[in-house]
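Deliverable D2.4 — example input (C-alpha cells):
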C-alpha cells in the first residue's frame, strides 16, 4: 500500500512540474519591462488637427476662434443661405444674418416648419380651449388675450369646431433683433373648416362644411443664444 501511494505521489508531482513548465513557456516571465494591459474603454490622446482642440472631458471637436469656419461671416460662408426664404440684400435677409450671428446653427427653413406646426397647434388649442398647450407657446400678454376669449366663450356655453385642411404658405415678412431678442414675423395662408355653436348646438358662426381661406400675420420671438430653444408667439393680426 505504501509503495502504491509513493508511486501515485511521484506521478502527481511529475504532472505538476510539467504543468508549471507549460504555463511558463506560454505566459512567459516578468522582466520589469512589460507594457500595461490595454483598456478597451480608454480614450486615445491623438494629436488634434490645427485649428481645433479636443476637450479633455468630451468627445466633441471645438473650433478655435481663429478657425476658417468661424472667421467667415454668414454671407461669406453661403451667399445663397436664405434662398427660398428671403431675397439677397433685403432687410429680411439682413435680419436673418443677424439672428444667425447670435444663434449658432439657426436654420430659416427649419424655423418656418416649426412656425407652421406652432400655428396649427395654437389655432387648434384655442378652438378646444386647451389652456395648457397655449401657455407653453404664447407670451404672457398674448396668452391673457386668448384665455380671456376662451373664458368668455365658455361663459356663453359656446364651442368652436376647427379642422385644418392645409397650410398653403408661410412667408417671413420681417425680422428684427434688439438686445439679443429676435423677432420674426410670418404671414400664414391656410384653409380651414371652422364653425361656432351655441349652447344648444346651433351654428352661430362659420360652417361645418365650408372651407375658408384664412390669412394671419404672427410674430414669434425668443432670446437668442438662450438655453430655451422655443420661440413664443408675441403678436397676432389678421392678414389682408
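Example output (designed residues):
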Amino acid at each position: 500500500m505504501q509503495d502504491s501511494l509513493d508511486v501515485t505521489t511521484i506521478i502527481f508531482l511529475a504532472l505538476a512540474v510539467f504543468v508549471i513548465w507549460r504555463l511558463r513557456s506560454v505566459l512567459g516571465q516578468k522582466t520589469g519591462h512589460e507594457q500595461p494591459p490595454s483598456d478597451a474603454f480608454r480614450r486615445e490622446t491623438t494629436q488634434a488637427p490645427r485649428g481645433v482642440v479636443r476637450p479633455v472631458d468630451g468627445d466633441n471637436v471645438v473650433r478655435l476662434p481663429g478657425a476658417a469656419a468661424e472667421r467667415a461671416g454668414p454671407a461669406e460662408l453661403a451667399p445663397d443661405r436664405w434662398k427660398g426664404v428671403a431675397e439677397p440684400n433685403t432687410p429680411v435677409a439682413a435680419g436673418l444674418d443677424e439672428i444667425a450671428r447670435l444663434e449658432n446653427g439657426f436654420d430659416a427653413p427649419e424655423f418656418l416648419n416649426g412656425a407652421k406646426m406652432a400655428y396649427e397647434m395654437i389655432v387648434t388649442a384655442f378652438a378646444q380651449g386647451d389652456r395648457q398647450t397655449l401657455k407653453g407657446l404664447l407670451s404672457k400678454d398674448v396668452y391673457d388675450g386668448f384665455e380671456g376669449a376662451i373664458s368668455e366663450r365658455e361663459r356663453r356655453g359656446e364651442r368652436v369646431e376647427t379642422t385644418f385642411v392645409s397650410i398653403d404658405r408661410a412667408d417671413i415678412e420681417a425680422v428684427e433683433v434688439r438686445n439679443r431678442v429676435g423677432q420674426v414675423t410670418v404671414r400664414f395662408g391656410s384653409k380651414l373648416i371652422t364653425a361656432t355653436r351655441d349652447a344648444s348646438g346651433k351654428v352661430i358662426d362659420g360652417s361645418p362644411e365650408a372651407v375658408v381661406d384664412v390669412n394671419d400675420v404672427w410674430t414669434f420671438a425668443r432670446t437668442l443664444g438662450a438655453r430655451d430653444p422655443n420661440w413664443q408667439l408675441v403678436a397676432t393680426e389678421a392678414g389682408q
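The two ends are 116 Å apart (CA to CA).
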